[in-house]
Amino acid sequence: MKYLSTRGGMQPQSFSDILLMGLAPDGGLALPESYPQISRSQLDAWRGLSYAELAFEIIRLFATDIPEADLKDIVDRTYTAAVFGSADITPVKRLSDGLVILELSNGPTLAFKDMAMQLLGNLFEYVLAKKGQSLNILGATSGDTGSAAEYAMRGKKGINVFMLSPDGLMSAFQRAQMFSLQDANIHNIAIKGMFDDCQDIVKAVQNDHAFKARYQIGTVNSINWARVVAQVVYYFKGYFNATSSNDEQVSFCVPSGNFGNVCAGHIARQMGLPVQRLIVATNENDVLDEFFRTGVYRPRGTANTYVTSSPSMDISKASNFERFVFDLLGRDGTAVKALWADVDAGKGFDLSAKLADAASKFGFVSGKSNHADRLATIRALDASDGVVVDTHTADGIKVARALRLAGETVVCLETALPAKFADTIREALDRDPPRPAGFDGLEDLPQKVVVFDADAARVKAFVEQTLAG
Ligand SMILES: Cc1ncc(COP(=O)(O)O)c(C=O)c1O
Ligand SMILES: N[C@@H](CCOP(=O)(O)O)C(=O)O
């Protein structure tokens, strides 16, 4: 399997190369030359597999330059009950109204990001050892990618993590999870701005080819294809757990911001998973909802991005959306390059002529949620099912309930645990959310972080100084 860029300007590369590469040299995102097609008999054979067995079957189709025995060892070490809390890894819960919740947040940092990041840590370690290289990761987070990456990479030989986050905008729990880490290879940088400013800096540094090569800069955001492919696995597992036969179809409802999670659902559907619809749920930052309703993509600036009670989705420039648009436009890299030249110039684009395809050919629909919806959903679910969900998952459930068709099985992706967003849970339920074992006193630990303006040059200087020792 070789990989190309969404902007059409990259020579085909192997999985291990794009794992370390981050953005493609032409500024685009890596995608496989084609998606592997899963036959009905393969799907039947996969139904009874454990999570690790299934992950191996799927990832080996993409990571074809890693010897299978090595890959199997990496996957088996990653997806264990000890790390993810149960042998099932991603169990499902059926609500009284028939909606299914796919639990993705039982890993070390209580968000779905652990599902891919734990694998990424082990893949990096393996590939870097083989190549005799080291890697300096520059990442951006709105709250969950950062902690998942830092927990997955802390203490790993040959890896440093520099993580940008929006200053003062994450929850107290999210801040404490990241900033309390004292490991020598973890560096937290709070940026005076929003997540999009952090992601813009990551992309600016990735596009400085000389700096990137000199300091071996890599990425853990969903820019990195390995993140997306690891997320494909739980769509298959969620499908098997929510159905009793491969004759059935399900729809997935996905709380969305940077479009990485639902992009993995799109890939699973393209591979042949029987997915009826992919329901994109946004919060008040509704760039994606606007696109799937109108065909107009209108990324907003920081001044027009709201600070909400589902803060991890406070995103107005959905990085991974480029991967979907590449497919929507018949994999035309030249057209994607032209559209993203407009995006990079602060404009948007109009693909309303393709809107019907987005729905009928690719199964996408969307809806949005706001603070009042979130509170109402959290209260209603607590009352009806005794289930407390986090604010992002609540956005998904609100939208799933609004858009569900008669007879449709909708699987809602649980993207974080409520303990991460205690203020809003208290506002909704007048009590604290359950706090999993091991997190008591987290917010009282000493914190280590530097604060910078949203300036790529300042971040580069910090990376240089830190690595110079
Ligand atoms: C808790 C939570 N929910 C939803 C999302 C949105 O996911 P994505 O950015 O993959 O669309 C994020 C951030 O990525 C998140 O941390
Ligand atoms: N919500 C994310 C934002 C980054 O998304 P990614 O999937 O591209 O890493 C976060 O929690 O940081």
From TrEMBL:
Coiled-coil intervals, chain numbering: none
InterPro entries: Ser/Thr_deHydtase_PyrdxlP-BS (IPR000634), Thr_synth_N (IPR029144), Thr_synth_N_sf (IPR037158), Thr_synthase-like (IPR004450), Threonine_Synthase (IPR051166), TrpB-like_PALP_sf (IPR036052)
Catalytic activity: O-phospho-L-homoserine + H2O = L-threonine + phosphate
Molecular function via GO: pyridoxal phosphate binding; threonine synthase activity
EC numbers on record: 4.2.3.1
Pfam family, one: Thr_synth_N
N6-(pyridoxal phosphate)lysine PTM positions: K113
Matches recorded under PROSITE patterns: DEHYDRATASE_SER_THR
Any GO BP annotation: threonine biosynthetic process
Origin: domain of life: Bacteria
Top class in the EC scheme: lyase
Cofactor(s) for this UniProt protein: pyridoxal 5'-phosphate
Keywords: Amino-acid biosynthesis, Lyase, Pyridoxal phosphate
Classification via SUPFAM superfamilies: Tryptophan synthase beta subunit-like PLP-dependent enzymes
Limits of the Threonine synthase N-terminal domain: 2-79
Listed CDD domains: Thr-synth_2
Pathways involved: Amino-acid biosynthesis
Family: Belongs to the threonine synthase family.
Protein name as annotated: Threonine synthase
